[in-house]
Amino acid sequence: MMFEKLLAELECTAAVFVRRIWSGEDISLTRTELADFKKFLAIMMYRGEHRRKQYFEDRFDFATRMTIKKHMRENNISKIQDVWFENLKWIIKTPIEDILKEFERAHGPMDPFAIMVAYRGPIHAVELLDFGYMVMNTVCIWHAEEGSEFILSNTSFGSFEGDMGVNFHSFFVVSPEYAVVLISRLYMNGQMEMLPLRKSWFGKELRAFPDAVYMNENPKSQDDFTKDDVFKYRRIVVPKQKVYLVNSILLDSRDKYITYKSSPSMYKSLLYYDKHKGELFHNQYDYSILKRKVFAEMNRTHSA
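Above: the chain's sequence. Below: its structure in token form.
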């Protein structure tokens, strides 16, 4: 019951922010609200079906499985599926400041695998690292260009674009018109070019830091930050072709349902996916039946 109450409080903060996005009014968050919002997004990604299946179906590489077994022995956990639930409970109940302190304690100068081997604590090291990196990323609000729309699916809240285990952009579609996007701090800080990774499919014109209003003017260090500092976000208009690209990522990652509002936008997204799936995507689904259905819907609309 305590976990449900704590999650509901985070969900309330997120819901207020999303309603501001929908309404067209000023979209801003205090430092505390921003931390809660990012924590909520991280929880939603972790409790999603993809991550849960990893544990319930034991879908890990050998090295990761060994570190999970180590964590189970150290925390007296008998089943690998219970690791997922214990991780979730700890993330929900622990204040984000304490999670980040644990992240800093674990992180140090070591590489990720060395951390997984050496770390001993209340949460599996991989999830602690994922959470810490995720909440350091930058929130952006993407607004689909007029005439295009984002689709919804069972993976539209947490699908991502990335390479070699590094998430460049994590997508959280909140309506056909808007998506909240977490953009890697490495892109925002200009460090991504130093890594041996492919370039993102999305350009820098779709990335923007929020305008910050500090309670202590001209802060010189983090010690000058306050919980009441305010971050003001703008809606970044995403060109149609990039909306279709986001939709294609969702089309390739879905495994249950797809929902759309605009038949023409859906049809163009399906055409985009068909054109590029061979070069960009892993699953390469066949949507020919859906494409015919959407095309028929468009013809009925035009003939009515």
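Residues 2-135 form one domain.
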